[in-house]
Specification:
5-stranded antiparallel sheet, 2 helices
């Protein structure tokens, strides 16, 4: 009677795992899709949300002006990622100064506002 060596059993199991891993489908990554109408109600609301949440969290006095560019992506696990460039104004005495900000927001359209998340908000250096 032949006995299997522990090393041989481990090697066979490892090869089996490699074969199984090679046959699994590649992870599906959703592509970013450009939004042609940045005045779309949902897109504007996402931009307003980003400016409001950032302003409240960082005690910055910013006012939403517009969405300059927008892209969406289906998020893993549900919801939608929104990658926006928004224009926001900062009051400065006589006139407001406007700057553009790169934003990343996750949310589910039609859900409560407390389920949305601002993932990134940073000023774009001009």
């Amino acid at each position: 009677m032949m006995r299997s060596s522990p090393v041989g059993v481990v090697a066979v199991a490892f090869v089996g795992l490699l074969v199984a891993a090679a046959t699994l489908p590649a992870a599906c990554r959703a592509e970013w899709v450009s939004v042609p109408d940045t005045n779309d109600l949902v897109i504007r609301q996402v931009g307003q949300f980003a400016v409001l949440v950032y302003g409240l969290a960082h005690r910055k006095d910013l006012a939403f002006v517009s969405v300059v560019r927008a892209q969406t992506q289906d998020a893993v696990g549900g919801g939608t990622n929104y990658r926006l460039v928004v224009a926001a104004a900062k009051p400065a005495g006589d006139g407001a100064t406007t700057a553009e900000y790169d934003c990343l927001v996750w949310g589910v359209p039609g859900s409560r506002s407390d389920t949305w998340k601002l993932r990134r908000f940073r000023k774009i250096q001009s």
